[in-house]
Amino acid sequence: MKPQLLRGENCAEEVIRVYSNLVYRLAFARTGTTYDADEIFQEVFLRYIKKRRVFENEDHRKAWFIKVTVNCSKKLWSSAWKRKTVPLEETLQFETKEDTDLYNELQKLPPKYREVIHLFYYEEMSTEEIARVLERKSATVRTQLTRARALLKNLLKEEYDV
């Protein structure tokens, strides 16, 4: 069953509440910093409010948010400002050491792998859904997931073999 389209007077507020975690987590997965994720988060929802797009259903709206978040992340990385800055060291608080270790290892993956890992495991999207949203072939997404898992396995193995 398809999710119903959100409607009503406070629709923008409700949409932001529903999609804020998705947008922020994906932005953070792509950029690796809270500062950049905050910037992308603001840009995505500003575009949403300004455009007043009409969506067929909630799946369409979710796909739009994912696509715009990915595009804003790409735009950030290609900006002249970003190329001339030095990243700050950030420390995030996690509940367990395993979560911290996993986060650190995920940050070592290229953005295209972090992106598919995030959408597959954290947003629980199928490879077909990911392919459609990212405008890639399903086979490409499956290959990227396989490669990301292999890289992550090697990184984690090195970490714990020490």
N→C terminal distance: 48 Å
Give the uncertain stretches in residue-range form.
none
Largest β-sheet summary:
none
- Strand count: 0
Shape: globular
**Count, helices:** 8
Beta-strand content bin: under 5%
Instruction: Output mean pLDDT.
Output: 80
What does this structure look like?
Helix content is 73%, strand content 0%. The protein has helices at residues 11-31, 34-51, 58-78, 80-83, 97-106, 111-122, 127-134, 138-161. It starts with 10 loop residues before the first helix and ends with a helix. The chain contains eight helices and no strands. With 162 residues, the chain is mainly α. The model has no long low-confidence stretch (mean pLDDT 80).
Task: Give me a quick take on this structure.
The protein has 162 residues and is mostly helical. It is 73% helix and 0% strand.
Task: Offer a few descriptive terms.
mainly alpha; globular
Annotate the secondary structure layout.
Blueprint: H1 11-31, H2 34-51, H3 58-78, H4 80-83, H5 97-106, H6 111-122, H7 127-134, H8 138-161
